Amino acid sequence: MMWNYVQFPDETQVAYSDVQEDGTVRIDIERPRDWGFDSARCIMPAYRWSDVDGFTDQEIEELDAFLRNNAPLIFELAECPPEERWEVA
User: How far apart are CA 15 and CA 3, in angstroms?
Assistant: First the structure.
């Protein structure tokens, strides 16, 4: 299951998975565009990027820096049992 983390003003959406058995967290990033979405995936904590479509190298660098700065909170949320998570209505 994926959980919403943040949406930027340009409608780029960042979502994270629960912590996987191997200790990783999957990050999916999407941004609406004509007839679809720009998308990218990152596996943390290795920060291994894949399936990048529509984002520039500069944008991936900025997203990578954002994820590195937010990693402690993302991992804390990803470890939290689903019934203890809060949602903003």
Answer: 5
- Token pair of 62 as six digits: 């900025």
- The encoded tokens of residue 65 equal 């820096």
Both tokens of 45, joined, read 């904590």
Amino acid 16: pLDDT: 96
User: What's the pLDDT at 57?
Assistant: 97
What type of residue sits at position 83?
E
84 CB-contact burial (10 Å; exposed 0-12 / middle 13-18 / buried 19+): exposed
pLDDT band with cut points at 50, 70 and 90 for residue 48: very high
Instruction: Provide the residue count of the chain.
Output: 89
Query: Which residues, at least 6 apart from 74, have a Cβ–Cβ distance to it below 8 Å?
Result: 5, 16, 25, 27, 44, 67
